[in-house]
Amino acid sequence: MKARFLAAAVVSALSLGFGATALAAADHGAAHALESHRLTLDHGRKWGTDEALRRGMDEIRAALESRRKAIRASSLGASEYQALAGNVENQVAYIVANCKLPPAADANLHVVVAELVAAAGAMKGTSTADAAQGARRAIGAANAYGKHFDHPGWKSL
């Protein structure tokens, strides 16, 4: 629950205009989350999901898929990275506000959420990574989600 509050606070800070500071903290927090919390399976099975999580992740996946070739070629313009970052942030906010998972599944989801928030920060230019790296990081987070969460019809990017 504390992790959910932290993620909500980061998303709220972003929406209130504290973007650079919040994303810098989120970028650091994401790196820390990945060091201390690795994604795991639920005793060899993927974690369950709920409708809100599937909806938000479907939207993120669709946004990344529609720009996948340009992301891989690092050929998106700054405004396109900004728009993609905004889409990811909006969907993360939706997931955080509406997703209700059991604690162990939720803890694993927070690793994915932290990666997505850090990726959005890079795409917006508010972290040390460049925008192209951020977009590739978002693809990596989406693919990691698909490997660890039971989301019918999910396809890796």
Would you spell out the secondary-structure blueprint of this structure?
Layout: H1 2-15, H2 19-36, H3 51-66, H4 68-72, H5 78-98, H6 103-124, H7 131-148
Helix pairs in contact: 1-2, 1-5, 1-6, 2-6, 3-5, 3-7, 5-6, 5-7, 6-7
What does this entry look like structurally?
The protein is globular. Helix 1 (2-15) runs parallel beside helix 6 (103-124) and helix 5 packs antiparallel against helix 6 (103-124). It has one domain (2-148). The longest helix has 22 residues, at 103-124. It has 157 residues and is mainly alpha-helical. Residues 1-36 have low confidence and may be disordered. Helices cover 73% and strands 0% of the residues. It is built from 7 helices and no strands.
From the spread of the alpha carbons, the general shape counts as globular
Q: What is the strand content? A: under 5%
Measured between the Cα atoms of the first and last residue, the distance is 30 Å
Helical amount among residues, as a percent range? over 70%
Q: What is the average of the pLDDT values? A: 83
Major β-sheet, in short? none
**Helix-strand sequence:** HHHHHHH
Number of helices: 7
Query: Rg to the nearest angstrom?
Result: 14 Å
Number of domains: 1
Q: Which structural class best describes the helix and strand composition? A: mainly alpha
Number of strand elements = 0
Q: Which spans of ≥5 residues are poorly predicted at pLDDT below 50?
A: 1-36
